[in-house]
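Collaborator request, handled under Task 6.
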Amino acid sequence: MFFGGMFLSYVVVAVLIVIPFWKIFERAGFSPVLSLLMLIPLVNICMVYFLAFSKWPKQGGTPS
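Structure tokens returned to the collaborator:
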């Protein structure tokens, strides 16, 4: 019973993390599949910096 509850909580947290970043990557013009990288520790920090400082394809490559 304990394992099932822990697994369910991990799935809920994963969904709560992936869905917003899926939309952010999609609206920025990147592949939304990149949001799955947000589940990997340390890679998620790199992805936030990548998203913040890269030129977004939907903006025509010019920073705002």
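The cover message to the collaborator said: "Residues 12-52 form one domain. The radius of gyration is 14 Å. Please let us know whether this matches your experimental observations."
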